[in-house]
Amino acid sequence: MKLFVLGMQCAIFRPSCRQSVNQPGNPMTAPRSFAFLLALCLCAAFQSPALSGDPPALGSITATNGQKVINWTPYPAAFQYKIFRANDLSQPFIEDTSGSVAGFNWASPLTDPLGFYQLRVTPMDTNALLTANVLNRLAYGPTPDELERVRAIGPDNYIQEQLAPELITENLSIDVVNTNSGWQYVTATGNGSSSILYVYLTKAGEGYIDDIVLVRGTVPEAGINLVRNGGFEVPLATNDWTVSSNHFGSDVSTAQQHSGNSSLHITASSAGSTQGSSIWQTISPALSSAQTYTLSYWFLPGSNITSGDVTVRLSGSGIVGTPGTLATHLVQGRASMDELRAWHVQHGVQSRRQLLEVLDQRHLLRRRNHHWPVGDPD
Questions:
Q1: Residue 205 is inside which H or E element, if any?
Q2: What pTM value is reported for the model?
Q3: φ, ψ for residue 265, nearest 5 deg
Q4: Residue 297: DSSP 8-state
Q5: How many domains does the chain contain in total?
Q6: What is the DSSP string of 168-194?
Q7: DSSP annotation of 306
Q8: Which among 2, 74, 131, 142 is most buried, taking Cβ atoms within 10 Å?
């Protein structure tokens, strides 16, 4: 591996001391004037001439507040920067470990005598550089999972893989469409927009709901449950749950349960939407709009009800929990525009067909910008 001397810059530095270091009777010594001479030999190690280019450019070199700082502009495809030091040019340069590199700066306490410094740049491995370029051109970027996978198969194999997306098999969680069989777990995180919690079906029908839990923080079920009788192990009482007229007939049942001995058999003669058409509870002590909470529950669809026909939410919709993946909502035709955008973004990032996703997103963006009807040709 060759080292090329790309440039040299010299300067005399001292802290904000107004006394000149060149005045008679005041010799220029580090202990007395805190000055030092910094000769920067900008060096870079290259594995091939193709990686060589203009040397890193110095942005600033300062010595203030008992600290010396060397600043430089980023160097293309740099893997590592190191500062080396020698007391004079007749001695070998040795890595200076008294300071540390942070971004494109090196800082060290201003305690050393005069010296000469080198900035050495170690370039990225050529294969790693090719991998990063390929992922930036053909994908949404070098995400951690893809970096590991592409390192394993190599960038050339990755390019061939992306040119044949029809041969890539994948099973993404966001593409899973929930069925109506079995208990389904629902979680939602948001702020405490209100202390009133609603439970309702969005159409006439019946089902079972169990283990409603609301906790502070972002981890489901981690902490004290703020919902009273959320497991429905005791009969409904007005100091816990109030049942609106359209959900009359809803009651604790031992016919189905996710845990314990019973669950809430929820029935509705018409769709619910607000406090007056739901089963609701006022949480005490009151929730805070500045606090993050996480809701979780289990739902078992019954007759005439699909997985997405139940909603548990806070008044004000700071937290809304509805069963089903984004794909389920899309298939059932009840997805919001935000959910459609979220599905496209997550699918684009998570899919292994990265080149196809990038081209598809660009195609959709062009249609939107030009207001092209879906059926029009390019």
A1: strand 205-216
A2: 0.54
A3: -85, 105
A4: E
A5: 3
A6: -----GGGPPP-SSS-EEEEEEEE---
A7: -
A8: 131
Whether residues 305 and 285 share a domain: the answer is yes
- Count other Cβ atoms within 10 Å, centred on residue 131: 20
N residues, the chain? 378
The pairing of strands 242-243 and 251-253 is unpaired
Query: Is the same domain home to 271 and 360?
Result: no
Q: Identify whether 323 is preceded by a cis peptide bond (ω within 30 of 0).
A: no
Q: Characterize the bridge pairing of strands 94-95 and 78-86.
A: antiparallel
- The residue segments making up the domain with residue 136 are 125-170+352-373
In this structure, is residue 209 part of a structural domain?
yes
> Is 336 inside a domain boundary?
no
* Strands 78-86, 116-123: pairing kind: antiparallel
Say yes or no: 302 and 189 in one domain.
yes
CA 309 to chain centre: 31
In a domain, 110, yes or no: yes
Q: In what order do the strands lie in the sheet with 94-95?
A: 2-13, 36-46, 116-123, 78-86, 94-95
pLDDT (tens place) for every residue of the chain, 378 residues total: 333 333 333 333 333 332 333 333 333 333 323 333 333 333 333 333 344 556 677 778 888 888 999 999 888 889 999 999 998 889 999 999 999 999 999 999 988 777 888 889 999 888 888 888 888 888 887 777 778 888 889 999 999 999 999 999 888 878 888 777 789 999 999 999 999 999 999 999 999 999 999 999 999 999 999 999 999 999 998 889 999 999 999 999 999 999 999 999 999 999 999 999 999 999 999 999 999 999 999 999 988 777 678 999 999 999 999 887 788 888 878 778 888 888 888 888 888 888 888 887 776 666 666 554 544 444
User: 360 in a domain, yes or no?
Assistant: yes
Q: Same domain for 60 and 105?
A: yes
How far apart (Å, rounded) are the C-alpha atoms in residues 257 and 61? 70
**Is residue 198 within 8 Å of residue 214, measured between CB atoms?**
no
Q: Which two tokens stand for residue 167?
A: 């041969």
Answer yes or no: do 103 and 155 share one domain.
no
Do 193 and 297 sit in the same domain of this protein? Answer: yes
Same domain, 191 and 96: no
DSSP 3-state of 280: strand
Statement to judge: residues 263 and 210 lie in one domain: yes
